[in-house]
Amino acid sequence: MDIDGLLEHRKAKDEFFATSHHAPLDHHKQQNFNGLAYFDPNPEMVFNLPVDPAGGEDIKIHTSDGQERTYRRDALVSFKVGGETVTLTMYTTGQPGFFIPFRDGTSGKASYGAGRYLDIEANGDGTVTLDFNLAYNPYCAYSDSYSCPMPPHENWLTIPIEAGEKDWLA
Predict the structure, then answer these.
(1) Which residues of the chain are modeled with pLDDT < 70?
(2) To bridge 63 with a disulfide, which of 21, 37, 67, 164 should be the other Cys (CB 3.0-4.6 Å)?
(3) Cβ count near 93 (within 10 Å)
(4) Are 131 and 77 in contact (CB under 8 A)?
């Protein structure tokens, strides 16, 4: 795990949130912004995993504003965390890579209640690397003006994933 790279990524994200007009924070929140909250870097939350097919069917995922979006159930990954084997579904959206919306045992406690996201690129050898240190909150965590996909039940984990972004209280 590249801790220096992770810390640089977090610093750049905080700078974006503090200064960009494209950030999900309004001007007032940007003026008072002191950075996002993160779990400490956790090398145990990085997994190199084989990818299993998930059937490729289209499913509707509900959004934070009551809409629906269509995603393709493209692949599955299974891994062991906290002594428990869990499986996550990876979706495709028409863009390169995989999208993983998930909830876990920290949701609504230490992390955003609706869940977090991971964006994953294939390694090119039938595997992917899930680095939960890069798990991030959807923009609707920061502003009601965004429509965010809600993690489907198949991606609700009971085990805590103590890595990535924590809840941000405005």
Answers:
(1) 170
(2) 67
(3) 15
(4) no
